[in-house]
Hints:
- The chain is an alpha+beta fold.
- It has one domain.
- It is 37% helix and 28% strand.
- Strand 1 (3-6) and strand 2 (9-12) form a beta hairpin.
- The protein is globular.
Amino acid sequence: xxxSKRDNHVLSYFAGGRPVLDLMTSAELIDYLRIPEISxxxxxxxxxxxxxxxxxxxxxxxxxxxxxxxxxxxxxxEKETKWVIRPQIMYHT
Length: 93
């Protein structure tokens, strides 16, 4: 994912070249998390709804819209990442 600096902020980009903003819509979050690539769900919005409900995916509501703060999503991913430590070798699951 290409990265550039602007106004002392590091910007990431979606595959289509659009910048990843600090507040993402559901559609942007679906792209960001690559849900269509890793899920067999017919409706990717259901995957996001389940992550919010069952796994505590952070979101905020502004002007009657649900938005996902990028920084909070990255912190949530770190928290949800499971590491298995075995003698001499560390595996990521």
